[in-house]
Model the fold of this input.
Amino acid sequence: MAIQEHLWEFPHAMQLKVMGAADAPLEEALIEILSNHLEDFEAEAHLTSKPSSKGTFVSFTAQVVMRHRGQVEAIYKALNECPHVKMTI
Done:
């Protein structure tokens, strides 16, 4: 993901949305990725989930604060490389 830094102000509060199969260990993978890159990430306080209408997929919304460009790029890179992540918004 190419960050156009002039469009961002850091620190930057945002919602990170991730979707994957309901039967995959997506929540655990997401918590690990975000915990590795965000020192203040707490899953209980910052992560919510919602199943799809048919229950095939699940989406997670993480309330995060990005501190710098490198952090944003590292998180999106890790999410894109995770086999359990089908889509990141």
Q: What stands out?
A: The CA atoms of residues 15 and 63 lie 5 Å apart. The first helix runs from residue 26 to 37. The chain has three helices and four strands.
